[in-house]
User: Fold these one by one.
Assistant:
Number 1:
Amino acid sequence: MFKKILVANRGEIALRVIRAAREMGIQSVAVHSTADSDAMHVRMADESVCIGPPSSALSYLSIPSIIAACEITGAEAIHPGYGFLSENAGFVQVIEDHGLTFIGPTAEHIRVMGDKITAKDTMKALGVPCVPGSDGGVATLEDAKRIGEEVGYPVIIKATAGGGGKGMKVAQTAKDMERAFQTARAEGKSNFGNDEVYIEKYLTTPRHIEIQVFGDGKGRAVHLGERDCSLQRRHQKVFEEAPGPTITAQERARIGKVCADAMADINYIGAGTIEFLYENGEFYFIEMNTRLQVEHPVTEGIFGVDLVREQIRVASGMEMSFVQDDLKINGHAIEVRINAEKLPNFAPCPGRITQYHAPGGLGVRMDSALYDGYRIPPYYDSLIGKLIVHGRDRPEALARLGRALGELIVDGVDTTVPLFHALLAEPEIQSGDYNIHWLEHWLETHLGSA
Ligand code: ADP
C-alpha cells in the first residue's frame, strides 16, 4: 500500500480523497493555486504545495508542476478527482514515465472512452446497447443530411471530443441540420480542439440512467447498480438518486451484468460510469466516464462502500474488497448539487461566506469545502457542496432532504438551495415521474430561466 498520495484537485473532491487516505493510514499531499492558499483541502492535507497562479491552465492543469510536487514531497501516487486532469491520457502516461502510479484506469482506457465515437464502437462490440445513429464520424453536411433522413428526425449532432454538455446540438427537422451541424463542429473545435462530430437519434422522453462499474484490472469487474440523473439543466446534472425510481431489480441485474462483463473483457481498472438514456424499457449507451463521478456518494450510500478507498486499493495492486454477491442495495439515497449561483439564470456568484452551517443527523452527509469566512474564488467551478441523504426508502430520503436543506446555512453568496426547496414541493419530484427535459421546462415556467 502507498505511504503518501497526492491529490491533483481542489474543493470538496480533494477533501473526499484526503479523508479516504487518512482512514487508510496514508499521508496526503494537497496542491493549490495562489488563489486557493486558504482553501480547506490545503488545511486538511498533511502537506501542501503551491503549483501556480489562479488560472487552472497554469496550476491544476499544469502536469510539470504536479509531477514536481510529487518529487518534492515523495508522493508515490496521484488521485485526480473529477474534472481537471482526471480524463487526460497524456497525464497518465507522464505519471507512469516518472515511476509514479495514477489512481484510475490506464491511459489506453481513458483514450478509448474519451473519444465518443471510439467509445461507442468499443461498447457496441462488447454487446452494450447503443443509441441508433451514424456509424462513426460524419465529415460533410451532405452526409449529415443523408444520415438525418435515415435515422429519422429529431437527431442530435455531437462532438466526439465533447463533454460537460458542450458540443451537442439538436436538429428537430432537416431544416435545422446545417446550423446544428456547423455549431456542434465549431464548439468541438473551440472547446476541445477537435471538430469531428457524429449523429444520434434524439430521444424525446428518456431518463438518464448510469451504471457504476468497478474493475480490478485483472479481468474481474462488478457493477454497483444505477443512478438516475435525469434532472438536468443544459445537459448538466443537478439532482441524482440511487436506485433509479423506475428501474426494476431484473432490469438492474440485466444491464448491470452487461456492463460488468464488458469491463471484465477490457481488464478495466478502478471506478467507471457507463451512461445510458433509458426510454420505453430500453437502455441506450451514450458515453463512459473513466473516473469517479461527482454523484458517486449516492451509490456509496445505498451499498455502504467507499469507492475512493477501493480506487486506492486496486491502484496499489490489492484486490477489490467485494465481489458481486456482496453488493446489496440498502434504502435510497439522493444528492443535490449546491452551486454558488444566482437564480433564475444561474449566474456564478463567488464571494465571501459570512456564515456556514452544515446539516447533520441520521442519514445526512455534506461533502463541502466551505467554512466560515471562506472566500470562494471566481476562477473555478461554482459547485460549493453536495448534500447527500439516505433513507430506508425514497419517501424517507425526500423528507430527510427537505429537513437537511432547512438546516443548511450558507450566507454571503447566492446559492441554488432555494431551487431544491421549490423542487421538493413538486408532485413529479415526489413521485419520481420525470425525464431529462422536465427540469428545463419547470425552470422556464416557474423561474423564467434562460
Ligand atoms: P457530455 O459528455 O457532454 O456529458 P453526454 O453524451 O453524456 O454528453 O450527454 C449528456 C446529456 O445530453 C444526456 O444526459 C442527455 O440529457 C442529453 N443527450 C445526449 N445524447 C442524447 C440523445 N441521443 N437523445 C437525447 N438526449 C441526449
Number 2:
Amino acid sequence: MDIYLDTADLEQLRAGASYGVIDGVTTNPSLVAKTGMPFAEIVPKILEIVDGPISFEVLSTDCDGIVAEGRKLAAVHENVVVKVPIIREGIKAIKQLASEGIKVNATLCFQPLQALLVAKAGAAYVSPFIGRLDDISTDGMELIEQIVQMYANYDMATQVIVASVRHPLHIQQAALIGADICTVPYSVFDKMFNHPLTDLGLERFLADAEKIPK
Ligand code: G3P
C-alpha cells in the first residue's frame, strides 16, 4: 500500500519525505489555508519536495470551470493530480478531464455508489473520507471494504485512497483490506514508528553491547 501525506505544510512534507517511504501527497483547500501561503506559491514548493502523485483541489463547482481549472493545474507538472468533488458537475468534469489523459482524484466520497460513478467516469483515484464517517457513528472502514470489493468485482482501474485518517490503526486496517493508498496527516504518520518494546529492546542491546570484551 502506498502512503501519502495529507498535508500542505512544507516542514511536515520535508520531514516525512526524509524517511524515503512517502509515495505522494494530498491537499485540500482547508490544508492549503492552514499554511497561510498563496496557492500559487505552495504548489511548486510541494512538487519539489515529493516526487510522486500530488493532489491539488479545484474550487469551481460547474463542469466548465472544473475542467478549465483542472487543465491549468495538470499543465503545471506531470505529477499533479486534479482533485474534483463528487457532485453532478464534478462527474461530468471527471469524464472530460480523464478523456484528455488528466489524472483525477474524486474527493468527498462517502458512499459506494459515488465510487462506482467516478470509476465509470474514468477517475484515476477515489478518496473515501473514513474519519468523517466515524465522526458521525458510521463505520468508515466498511466503506473502504465495499469500494475495494466493488472495484475488484469489475476489474475497475480507479485506485482507492483512504482519506480522513484519524489514527494509526486506520492505516493498518486499510492495508489489511487491500486499499491501494492511505493518505495520512503528519501527526498520524509520526505514530507509525513507535513501540515501547522497540525502545526498551534497543536500550538493553546497547547496554549489553558495553559488556562485550573489546
Ligand atoms: O484530504 C482529505 C481528507 O483527508 C480530510 O481529512 O481530517 O479533514 O476529515 P479530515
